[in-house]
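Lab notebook, design round three. We kept the backbone fixed and only want residue identities now. Task for the bench partner: fill in a sequence for the structure below.
Input structure tokens:
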């Protein structure tokens, strides 16, 4: 999420089709659609890194390369978003390129430092009606 954007979904309080609040179950089709959408988000995050590397003429995903990528993104995104992006990119790099970035200590330390002083916004509890 970009800085300054509202983090509350427009669907809060509506029947979501399957969660602990409305006690509905997803159909098999809905699960497939949901998994497809999640995989699409992961691929988008991975492709952003690939595009950024191509723009910078980088061919190897090293710790310093990913550190530069995330430090550039830290100017526009909150710590929680950087961690989400890290998680998605990590999964895709393991699958597609056999690179485990969870073993990059400088990158993880950087992500931890971006969260220093960050206070997550509290949202109201969703009550059953």
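Proposed sequence:
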């Amino acid at each position: 999420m970009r800085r300054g954007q509202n983090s509350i979904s427009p669907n809060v309080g509506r029947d979501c089709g399957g969660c602990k609040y409305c006690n509905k179950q997803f159909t098999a089709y809905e699960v497939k659609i949901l998994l497809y959408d999640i995989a699409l988000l992961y691929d988008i995050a991975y492709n952003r890194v690939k595009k950024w590397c191509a723009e910078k003429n980088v061919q190897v995903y090293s710790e310093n390369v990913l550190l530069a990528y995330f430090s550039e993104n830290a100017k526009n995104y909150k710590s929680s978003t950087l961690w989400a992006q890290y998680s998605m990119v990590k999964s895709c790099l393991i699958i597609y390129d056999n690179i485990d970035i969870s073993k990059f200590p400088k990158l993880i330390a950087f992500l931890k430092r971006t969260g220093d002083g960050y206070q997550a916004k509290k949202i109201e509890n969703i009550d059953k009606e």
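Keep this in mind before ordering anything: Residues 28-55 form the longest helix (28 residues).
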